[in-house]
Amino acid sequence: MVNNLNIMSANPEKSSGQIVVKNLLKRYHTKPVLNQLSINIDAGALCILVGDNGVGKTTLLRILAGLVHPDSGEIAIGNSGSSREPQDRRMIGYLGHQSMLYQDLNAIENLTHYARLYRLPQANMIISELIQSVGLEKSQHQMVRTYSRGMQQRLSIARSLLHDPEVLLLDEPYTGLDKQGAQFLDKRLQSLHQQGKTIFLAAHRPHRLLSFASHVAWLIDGMIAEYSPVQDIPRHANLAAYLQESA
To answer: CB count, 10 Å around CB of 180?
Structure first.
């Protein structure tokens, strides 16, 4: 049950990809996982979310995606001011620990299913281009259950990009990817960032992202302890040391 959750009203002056969170609280078994967490991510930012395992990174991303209900706080994503309604979720692309793929369908069938949910025009062309871009054209007719972990991750990335969302919420997107797959994702994230997409990305090992990310947010004890532009990290000694240790 959700108590005291406020969805901020839409602000016409606010950019379509902006993420605003105020005083977010989420408890599991009375223990706060997120404790009065606040953060403001500008539209077009590529922000790396870092923190130790179990600190609440996944919970935060799932709340922003509208998949988990917080106990209290305020959330606004873009002009809609919400991620709770189906029409508002359209602007969000989410990649979590679960692939959200149907194991007994092939790549084309999986993406076709999601394209129908989004009522995408010219879906066949979009699906074909995405499958090619993630390097799965040779296996696009195979059932997903025959895919390796890395192949499933590539298809999950394609699923999250299918409807050209303004905001991407990515939870450890490099999981399972081989060197070639990781290099593909590097280039894709850089391209999306250059297009002005807003990307909030949890990474246990964020070092490879620092060359092209714009910001880093450090989650400690349920709160954002540091939020810094990448170029200013040297001014934050504790954050710099943490990133060095996690490299």
So the answer is: 11
Residue type, position 9, single letter:
S
**Where does the chain show beta strands of DSSP type E?**
5-7, 19-28, 31-41, 46-50, 72-77, 92-95, 167-171, 198-202, 215-220, 223-229
For 39, the token pair is 């953060």
Measured CA angle at 190 (ends 185, 195), to 5 deg? 125
Tell me the pTM: 0.90
* Per-residue pLDDT tens digits for 121-145: 999 999 999 999 999 999 999 999 9
Q: What is the dihedral of CA 194, 186, 203, 245, to 10 degrees?
A: -110
Q: What is the DSSP string of 79-90?
A: GGT-SSSHHHHT
Q: Rounded to an integer, what is the distance from CA 91 to the centroid of its chain?
A: 12
**What H or E segment, with its residue span, contains residue 108?**
helix 107-118
Can you name the residues that pair with 224 across neighbouring β-strands?
219
